Amino acid sequence: MTSIVLGQGRDGSDTCIDLPELLATRLLVQGNSGSGKSHLLRRLLEQTATLVQQVMIDPEGDFVTLADHYGHLVIDVEDQSEASLRAAGERVRAHRASVVLNLEQVEAEMQLRAAGAFLNGMFEAPRAHWYPVLVVVDEAQLFAPVAGGDTSDEARRLSLGAMTNLMCRGRKRGLAGVIATQRLAKLAKNVAAEASNFLMGRTFLDIDMARAADLLGMERRAAESFRDLARGQFMALGPALSRRPKLVTIGPVTTASHATGPVLVPLEPVSAEDLRDIILEPVHEFTPRARRESRPPPPDLLAQLDAYGAEREAEEPAPAAVVVEADPDQLWSLVAEVVAGEGSDYKPLATLYQDFQLRARIQGLSRNVLELGPFHRMLATIRAGLDRERSESGDWKQAQAIAATLPEDVQGVFLLLARTALDGETCPGDEALARAYGTHSLGRARRQLNYLEEREVIVLQETPLGRRVAIVGLGWQTA
């Protein structure tokens, strides 16, 4: 058994925490501000720094000092996008790096989005990288609130979903959640309920004391004892701590937070007249610059081409109307150029369609020569690896008919699988599936296989030699 000393019990004996048991059963820490939660988390992180990989979600920047003593990587999220944070979450697991995600410099909305993206990236890491990780989340009520606040519903759902995955489904993936909160009443119940170990600190509100007593299996009248706990004292219970509620005083730490608590400083004697001159010193107001005359923004390129065509028609007599059918080979070539563009795999469909419309207008075609639906199907067919001639075959028409019954975002994945099965090639790898789905997340792309199997359009088989896929109704199979 690998145990670490968390602190001392009432009789002065060491109180230990069983690390393997903690990784399997998770931990919830609760206590009002000033009860010593951050000190407890720092003690836990310091004692386990050399034993297990650690990830710290730090909303106040209190734990960045761990980098100086234990080599943690500090990630400041202010210059990072959600996509880069999600990718960083996957890479952290692959390289087994201990990380402090510093959210101090961003507002609440971005804190939720950043934490959600990073945790989802860790959760979606491939199975080969499911090493044990101690994931510590301070101020967990911010990331898993029981009700909405000042942030958007989208950000709250993203963060709450990530926290739920961490606490409810993270164990099999090696993710051991350690969450700390000031108030249990503000923490989502489905997140708090998954913890089997508890450390309850000083609490004053009746609703929080009652809930803490329920979690520890104590009688309601004994809940008032939480008011008498000193700073740094916690009631411990759980398979990794103690089978019965036990008082523990957290031991000392080596590192310290950059933030310091309030310290009494004597006031310097200054006369009221001097203070008046300092505080009420006139402020120099600068005359603002005259605003430039606002100009309307220039029209986009497609609008300019349309306007140019309208002017030419007004200047020249209109010839007899001639209906010109669009050349299918020309349309195929234009869509292929869009597919070959840099970064096209990850661009939204609307952006790619606008690119196609621009190319069509330059060729003298109408911008609506190909509607969005047919454009999307042709785009997915070209991405799947078919040429113009084979795309008109009866077999491929059947595959396209099946794809039309699926949501647009997974049609490209299905058509890629159908093409490889039609040619008897091996099943596409995770990266190819991710490109077809338009994401950088390999885990998200893999989940589309399960979705397609649930829709009964493919049969998925995992073999020792790799993944194998059969197309339902067509009889095609990958090698």
From TrEMBL:
SUPFAM superfamilies: P-loop containing nucleoside triphosphate hydrolases. Residues 10-72 form the Helicase HerA central domain. Keywords: ATP-binding, Nucleotide-binding. GO terms for molecular function: ATP binding. Pfam families: DUF87. InterPro entries: ATPase_Atu1862_pred, HerA-like, HerA_central, P-loop_NTPase. PANTHER family: HELICASE MJ1565-RELATED (PTHR42957:SF1). This is ATP-binding protein. It comes from Gluconobacter oxydans (Gluconobacter suboxydans).
